[in-house]
Amino acid sequence: MIGPDYNKRDYLLPKGCKDLADALVVNVPKEPTVLELAGLLGKQPASLVADLFQLGVFASARQRLSFETASKVAQKYGYVARQA
């Protein structure tokens, strides 16, 4: 079995990513729910609700968010949100 080519930079990146910047981009729907956004970011919905509370947005897990609000939350976790 041949292992990864360690001379190339992309052997640690997720499949389909050519650079680290591609790995930090998350495709977010136009108006995602808190549950959808939590799934995309790999976080618990309760932690996103707390982050939204700090932004002055009172939301439940099934409430829809604007894309701008979702991108602010994604940015807090180091992701760049791109509208899907």
Structure summary:
The protein is 38% helix and 10% strand. It has helices at 20-23, 34-41, 45-54, 67-76, and strands at residues 25-28, 80-83.
Descriptive report:
The protein has helices at 20-23, 34-41, 45-54, 67-76, and strands at 25-28, 80-83. With 84 residues, it is an alpha+beta fold. Strands 1-2 form a two-stranded parallel ribbon. The protein is elongated.
Strand count, sense and barrel status of the largest sheet are: 2 strands, parallel
Q: How much helix, percentage-wise, in residues? A: 25-40%
How many DSSP H or I helices?
4
- Please state roughly what percent of the residues sit in beta strands, choosing from under 5%, 5-15%, 15-25%, 25-35%, 35-45% or over 45%: 5-15%
Helix and strand pattern: HEHHHE
Overall, the morphology is elongated
Q: Structural class given helices, strands, pairing?
A: alpha+beta
- Termini separation comes to 38 Å
Uncertain regions spanning at least 5 consecutive residues: none
Q: Could you tell me the mean pLDDT?
A: 84
Spatially, the strands of the biggest sheet line up as: 1-2
Radius of gyration: 16 Å
Oligomer: single chain
Count of distinct strands: 2
